[in-house]
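Posting for a labmate who doesn't have an account.
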Amino acid sequence: MQQWTYALLLIASLAVPLIRSFEHRIHFIGNWRALLAGIFVMMLVFIPWDVAFSSRGVWGFAPDYVSGLYLIGLPIEEWLFFVVIPYCVMFSFEVIRYFFPKIYFPKQALWLSLGIGASLIIVGLLNTDKIYTFITMLLAGALMILMPILKYHKTWLSHYFVAYLVTLVPFFIVNGVLTSIPVVWYNNAENLGIRLTTIPIEDSAYFMAMMLIVMPVYERLKPKKG
């Protein structure tokens, strides 16, 4: 049973969002094409990144806690991670947007995204010797700055910030389990060494970058209501 630890954690994460996706008010399941397109584009970036970092020992996976099925050097569970987590986050995003439609702060979202983006880039440039910190902070920072350039602060960026903060809680629960067992281990020589419990602080920017790739594709392709 131990070898299914990672898989069972993903199943537990997906269970409620998947069941509730058929609920008639939000009907999240109706957006599956847009969601899969966003996930696919994100995986074009994150899978090669994951493969490269795993191969050079930036992070890795404990064989005792994965099924033993590998694809391009990654456990199959890691591939599913990039599907399950965005699914859960985008479901939460749509729930928040449905029940709190008046959340809208475009000016603040613009300056918040520019400020966060610039701060992340500075941290990355100050840590060029730590590859996880350097790459993650630069990518998340650049994507964050790109959002207001593309005028997304006038549409969905306000709800994104709220959804990001809300979903950080389950993200850290899942990641906390993965890194405390550990199912996933990190080489501290390649990151800042700052941990939120057992989670490298870079993971919060990694999570941000994931969703900032999924979101624009999803929003562009999502069926328009009415």
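Reply:
Got it, the structure tokens are right above this. DSSP finds seven helices and six strands in the chain.
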